[in-house]
Amino acid sequence: RQVDHVIERSTDDGSGLPAMEVRINVSRQQVEKVFGLEEYWCQCVAWSSSGTTKSQKAYIRIAYLRKNFEQEPLAKEVSLEQGIVLPCRPPEGIPPAEVEWLRNEDLVDPSLDPNVYITREHSLVVRQARLADTANYTCVAKNIVARRRSASAAVIVYVDGSWSPWSKWSACGLDCTHWRSRECSDPAPRNGGEECRGADLDTRNCTSDLCVHTASGPEDVALYVGLIAVAVCLLLLLLVLILVYCRKKEGLDSDVADSSILTSGFQPVSIKPSKADNPHLLTIQPDLSTTTTTCQGSLCPRQDGPSPKFQLANGHLLSPLGGGRHTLHHSSPTSEAEDFVSRLSTQNYFRSLPRGTSNMTYGTFNFLGGRLMIPNTGISLLIPPDAIPRGKIYEIYLTLHKPEDVRLPLAGCQTLLSPIVSCGPPGVLLTRPVILAMDHCGEPCPESWSLRLKKQSCEGSWEDVLHLGEEAPSHLYYCQLEAGACYVFTEQLGRFALVGEALSVAATKRLKLLLFAPVACTSLEYNIRVYCLHDTHDALKEVVQLEKQLGGQLIQEPRVLHFKDSYHNLRLSIHDVPSSLWKSKLLVSYQEIPFYHIWNGTQQYLHCTFTLERVSPSTSDLACKVWVWQVEGDGQSFNINFNITKDTRFAELLALESEGGVPALVGPSAFKIPFLIRQKIITSLDPPCSRGADWQTLAQKLHLDSHLSFFASKPSPTAMILNLWEARHFPNGNLSQLAAAVAGLGQPDAGLFTVSEAEC
């Protein structure tokens, strides 16, 4: 199509020949605004007295590649030698995207494997599934503009078990029977395949001719007496070893509660207070900034000598304790804790626990349930009643990991929105979902974010176990997402993290900005440290602990910054410094923290330091301003202005000790709702009611009606609602409001549920 639009025309240069020059230096948005096209052509036209001369047409197309795949591969489970088809429709783009497939991050090459080929529609086809084809498959689309990855699809190739041939019949025994056996090994079941059906042992009566009866002689009696004597000696030796072990174990039993804790409803247990924090356990990374920054390096002074850290070996933290004893532990970096953990680690109880213990708590639980909390982090694990099978006792741990200790691969525009949290041991049997609560720093908006819950597998790879907004009611995982926290229902313990992928530039993360400085200036220099953290309790806790060691104090109220996915760095500058008293040592107008260091979410202690040099010996307070801003795509900027005065009243805002509480609670003491009243509510509201006085109405009153399908998929929907209420409102929940909501359902016996705080 022809568009008559002259962009720029030069004048005659006096040579008698007309001159024409066209310059095109526009963006795709400008081209669409001017021409209304994504594909267009340009033509140079020259006019003279002899006529009009036109050049050849130059065709121009705008190259692009959209973010979202039109169709992504889905996880599958197939039997051995069955065909596999993984569809993939790449994003729209110009030029059209080329497609390639990855198997466990390795390129799939059909020329090297005749069992695999890729169709014209970009689907990956495996002609006959093999055990080696069990892997995570990813569809990759790319052109000259960008490279996009689909969500990984887990393909599991399973093998059903089959019986081996029967063995020969055994000799006929004294009871006139003989037997034969077979094994489920031809082939053995693998990757979740079905077990063999039928018996593995066949017994029949012998014929009378084959049945031989013999009388026991003196030799047989002597043999039996000898065997009994050996058994008695072994038993005595075992008793002696047990007594010796118990003597050595006396030092470990200092925090073992009385067995009445199992019979009296798990009354509250006293916990030993942890000792003072060890200053060797915290280090800080250097600032990550561009060439315009002069941000400080490590803030911690050098420590000589070995650090009192201890490693926890891999294994399961699962120990059914004998003798009716019930132990309750809380981590603290003391010699007793190190001795306890080292003795447990030799028995392979722990699995992938961190180096230190300041961010770990653990306790022992049975069917009555309980709660684990890591103080001042917003992280907790609720174990509802009957989540642990009756007759079982599990020792469960809850751990907060530092991002640099755990490798979480992030692809494309993905960003870490929550702390990385482990609860375990993995593989224990749970009959009800537990609820893992943790903070996040995303601004939840379905149009701007694609949120996924990731879980680390036993092999160490991370998998997407839940796509928020697309949950299936029968899924093993479910998530209640709120403004600053998420509550994960899971029946499988493990390591979790919430990851977001920006769908537009409107996607924002909440960052918290904190300003710290020394309590007193004892030298010629004064350092002001500006931290840029995720707006979560755990990130704030780490920085506060670090600044306590450095002798710093908060000098301004923390501010929240909404950081956009605009690919622009965060800039910081200092202004209005009294030049007669202080001089800034910054050689440039501002400092920067790179966009990807912030957006990735795996960098700790991101900060910049402004160093001021004293000019005058005056002792007057320092007053200045710090500007923090991010430039948007249209050239505008939004900033936060700090007015700095040396006022210690802001330190009261970080009184983290107020959260308090026992890090491990067991039995009824871990719940706000009394156990008997909870059972009455469940019994009354679980059955459907024609008048609407059932669990669905309770969910609506508690603003949880968006999760009705998930609640309905569980054996007791009311129990799920009450568990979520406990996770969201402990320990400061208003029990009277819940009682009023239950009493307002119109049940004939609703008065039974009306309780007061005093009655609880």
Biggest sheet architecture: 9 strands, antiparallel
First-to-last CA distance: 79 Å
Task: Name the CATH architecture of the domain at 508-657.
Answer: Sandwich
Report the sheet-strand fraction. 25-35%
Average pLDDT metric: 76
Give the fraction of residues assigned to helices: 10-25%
Number of helices: 11
Q: Catalogue the unreliable spans.
A: 1-13, 15-23, 25-29, 33-37, 251-356, 754-760
Radius of gyration: 35 Å
CATH topology-level fold name of the domain at 508-657: Immunoglobulin-like
- Count the beta strands: 42
The CATH homologous superfamily of the domain at 508-657 corresponds to Immunoglobulins
**Which geometry do the CA atoms define?**
globular
Structural class: alpha+beta
Question: For this structure, what is the CATH class of the domain at 508-657?
Answer: Mainly Beta
Characterise the protein shown here.
This is Netrin receptor UNC5. Pfam families: Death, I-set, Unc5_NetrinR_N, UPA, ZU5. It is a single-pass type I membrane protein. By secondary structure, this protein is α+β, with helices and mostly antiparallel strands. Among the domains are: 55 residues, Sandwich (Immunoglobulin-like); 95 residues, Immunoglobulins (Immunoglobulin-like, Sandwich), CATH 2.60.40.10; 139 residues, Chondroitinase Ac, Chain A, domain 3, CATH 2.60.220; 150 residues, Immunoglobulin-like (Sandwich), CATH 2.60.40; 73 residues, Death Domain, Fas (Orthogonal Bundle). α7 packs across α10. It starts with 27 loop residues before the first helix and ends in a 17-residue tail after the last helix. The longest helix has 31 residues. Strands 18, 19, 20, 23, 24, 25, 27, 28 and 31 form a 9-stranded antiparallel β-sheet that branches. Strands 6, 9, 10, 13, 14 and 15 form a 6-stranded mixed β-sheet that branches. β9 and β10 form a beta hairpin. It contains 11 helices and 42 strands. The N terminus and C terminus are likely disordered. The chain is globular and about 125 Å long. It is 16% helix and 29% strand.
